[in-house]
Structure formats: structure tokens, C-alpha cells
Amino acid sequence: MRICRVAVDDDLYFGLIEGEAVVLLAGHPFGELSPEGRVLPLTDVRLVAPVLPSKIIAVGRNYADHAKELGNEVPVAPMVFLKPSTSIVGPDEPIALPWQSEQVEHEAELAIVIGRLCREVPEERVPEVVLGYTCANDVTARDLQKTDGQWGRAKGFDSFCPIGPWIETSVDLDDAAITCHVNGDLRQDAVLGDMVRGVPELVSWISSVMTLLPGDVILTGTPAGVGPLTAGDFVSVSIDGIGTLTNPVIDRD
Questions:
Q1: Which is nearest to 92 in space by CA: 56, 45, 57, 28?
Q2: 109 forms bridges with which residues in the sheet?
Q3: Tens-digit pLDDT profile for the chain (253 aa)?
Q4: Is residue 14 within 8 Å of 115, Cβ to Cβ?
Q5: CATH number of the domain located at residue range(s) 56-251 in this protein
Q6: N or C terminus: which one in the chain shows less Cβ crowding within 10 Å?
Q7: Residue 33's closest CA among 99, 132, 126, 119?
């Protein structure tokens, strides 16, 4: 099942994608789904970020090859940091390059969307609290990441967390390919099974630290191949079984 969030005229709705149409929902998808009554062609709506989370929890160095390319070791426990909810943008919305950085890079990632309030979740019960999965780009000002000593600014600028194009409730978490293309050129290419720590371990570990709320997003780390973005680029993150998230890159005003 594919859950989306769409703009219809001046209003926003959650919806279910069925073929080339969207079934609009009354209310949110965190519970029993209730169709609103209208079915619209996909071409008549605009896809926006599928959720607006209370928090974005990101996992660092969760692919060994990416840790190696930046000269780091894989951490002995999950290394997490927060991105602000204001960094969220949806499909086709621009990534704005801030004037403070001269080295902004893409990071293709699988994003987990939490479906219910939870804490201290055992690994075997993680599927009960996950609504689904979407594509994400953990955009990073690499130079600021190196100079600041912590990552809040480098990863927290407005537009530095594109997600979308929708939430897929069932994904092959072992064999699905994850790729990133910039202007059609392949930059990152891996499979989700390459993650050091998988979805059950990450959700269980993070929920032992903080309560997770419906709509919260967990970014699961990026594979090797991260690289620069410049104004005028188009960057696409694709995950088998989910889809493709594409965003233009512009200079921030």
C-alpha cells in the first residue's frame, strides 16, 4: 500500500495511491484508514512531503563503505543525531544551498516512518510500530560538519531533508537497491542489506532512548558515493519497491 500526502487547490490531504489515482483520506493514516470520498487522477494533485514529523532521528555511519570513505570506523553502537522538522521538503521542491557552506553533499537513505506512539520496543515487535518506508536525502554541509565538531548546523539547514514521494508499507529490506543520481549520473549504488544495523535493531535501540510519535522519521544511513551538489543540479534518490525522489538544487536567497 502506498500512502501519500497531496495538495488539492489550497488544501492538504493524506491519500492512498491506487494505480494512477489518489483516494483521498479523511484525517491521517495513523490508525484506521477512512476514505474521504473523492478519487482524483494523480496528474490533478501535487505530491508533498508524505509526513511532517515531530522529529527526524538520523543514524550515522550505518554502511561500512561510507564510514571508510570518510575515514571513520563503524561505531560500536548506533550513532544518532537529530535534524529539525523544518529541514523537510517534498518531491520536486528545491534544496537550497546556504551561503555559509562551500561543500554541500547528497546522502541517499531509506527513511522509516513511525506509525504509533511507542517506546522500549523489542526487535520482534518493531513491525507493529512502523507505518512504512520512504526515500530520503540527508543533505549535508560537509565542510561545516568537519569544522563545527557537531552536526546540528551542517545537517539542519532548511530543505536539507527531502523525503518522498510517498510511504510504501511493504519493502524488501534486504535485497532492495538504493541509488542516487545527479543529473542522470550514478553516484551511489548499494542494497539495503548492506546496512550494518537493520530496521528492527535501529527502531528498538532508538525507542529505548526516546519516545517515538506517529509520523516521526528515522533516517537509516547512507552508502558510499556521497558527493557535491551545485545550483542547477537535479538529484534523485531511488529505492526498489518505493520509487524515486527528485529535487532541484538552487542557491539560497
A1: 45
A2: 136
A3: 999 999 999 999 999 999 999 999 999 999 999 999 999 999 999 999 999 999 999 999 999 888 677 777 788 899 999 999 999 999 999 999 999 999 999 999 999 999 999 999 999 999 999 999 999 999 999 999 999 989 999 999 999 999 999 999 999 999 999 999 999 999 999 999 999 999 999 999 999 999 999 999 999 999 999 999 999 999 999 999 999 999 999 999 8
A4: no
A5: 3.90.850.10
A6: C
A7: 132
| Residue ranges of domains in the chain | 2-47, 56-251
Determine the residue type at 229. L
Amino acid at 34: S
CATH architecture of 2-47: Roll (2.30)
Give the span between the Cα atoms of 44 and 24, in whole angstroms. 12
- CA–CA dist 218, 111 (Å, integer): 6
- Do 35 and 23 form a contact (C-beta atoms < 8 A)? yes
Question: 201-228: string of b/e by CB count within 10 Å (b at 16+)?
Answer: ebbbbbbeeeebebbbbbbbbbbbbbee
Put simply, whether the predicted model's pTM sits higher than 0.70 gets the answer yes
